[in-house]
Amino acid sequence: MIRLLIADDEKMEREALADIVMRRFEHEVTVEMAENGRKAADTAVLWGADLILMDIEMPGMNGLDAARAVLEQRPECKVIFITAYSLFQYAHEAVHLGACDYLLKPVDPDETEAAIRRAIRQIEAGRRLAELAAEAPEQETDPAGEGESDRNALVMDHVRKYMEDNYMADLSLDSVSEILHISPAYLSAQFKKYQKMNFLDCLTELRINAAKELLADPFRSAAEVASMVGYEDASYFARAFKKRTGMTPTQYRKEAAKACGSSGAGSYRLYGAVCFFAAGEAAHPALCGEPAGGLPHQQGGKGLCRACGAAHGRPGEGAGLQRGGTGRRAERHPADAVRRG
Fold first, then answer.
1. Whole-angstrom distance, CA of residue 329 vs CA of residue 110
2. What is the pLDDT of residues 133-177, one digit of tens each?
3. Which of these, 58, 108, 55, lies nearest to 81 by C-alpha position?
């Protein structure tokens, strides 16, 4: 069972989150609640929480400070931050702390469930890796028989799975080898032997592939994408991205927009409550920043504002749910620790 702690100073918010969790994870989690940051930090450590749904804005000790206090003593604990403020500095610090997600109030039950399930996968992958530590390859000698070779291959398969679930965190040969109780050099050799690529190349590939998807959102800066996929230094991310793809993140975004535009007569999407138009022939995004037909961002439909609708020969009032919009939210990327808004 996963021990899940809900920390929010508003009683209604705590109860709403608890209701979502208990209805959708009835037989998977046990729940405790805390009404402030200090109690959240104490409860998480003493109770041994595996996962925390942590409000950021709480009186006294805020959620960021509470999470920092918990992670100093329980680094394996996962944190999903929840806040009413879509401020990048919050999101950036949350990612820096190792948060596995970041949700904006009022929380959507489906998004909350998806975030919790991602966190549970990370927790289970870490537990499995720790269990396999006892079966990890010996450092002094190479495998002597087929059975031991199969065991080592299994361990490295789980290392790969752990990387896929945690690439956005502060992941390294040192941190994984510490879990397995083997040296970084030996882990590196075994990983390359059984995965046919070295550890760092695998980690970079996972991060760059995730960054490609996140760069499709024109409202995210390259620095924001960098922090979301595990790079603290945006310049280093840009160099790694160009080495892997042959393009800078900005160039890749432009090429992706052109490819999208050439696939049809035109497309227009709504990110947050803002109009976004990508003309088919011109493949040129016009970001006017105006509301798309008055459609609330929570509804996530398609649309153009009146000005862009007129400029591109599209009816602005035909935006979103009013006429033919999908009304569906786009599924969030696992590294999407920053809500659009």
1. 10
2. 766 555 545 555 566 677 888 889 999 999 998 898 888 999 898
3. 55
Q: Which pTM value belongs to this model? A: 0.60
**Which residue has tokens 């879990």?**
179
C-alpha angle 129/132/136, rounded to 5°? 115
3-state secondary structure at position 196: coil
DSSP-assigned states of every residue in 153-187: HHHHHHHHHHHHHHTTSS--HHHHHHHHTS-HHHH
What are the CB-based long-range contacts (under 8 Å, 24+) for 214-220?
214/333, 214/335, 214/336, 215/249, 215/252, 215/253, 215/256, 216/253, 216/256, 217/271, 217/340, 218/253, 218/257, 218/271, 218/276, 218/285, 218/287, 219/271, 219/272, 219/274, 219/287, 219/340, 220/338
The total number of residues written for the chain in this structure: 341
Sign of the dihedral defined by the CA atoms of residues 103, 104, 105, 107, in that order: negative
Secondary element (H or E) of residue 317: none
User: What is d(CA 132, CA 183) in angstroms, rounded to the nearest whole number?
Assistant: 15
Give start and end residues of each alpha helix (H) in 78-145. Answer: 88-97, 109-132
The pLDDT mean for the chain works out to: 75
Cβ pair 276, 266 in contact under 8 A: no
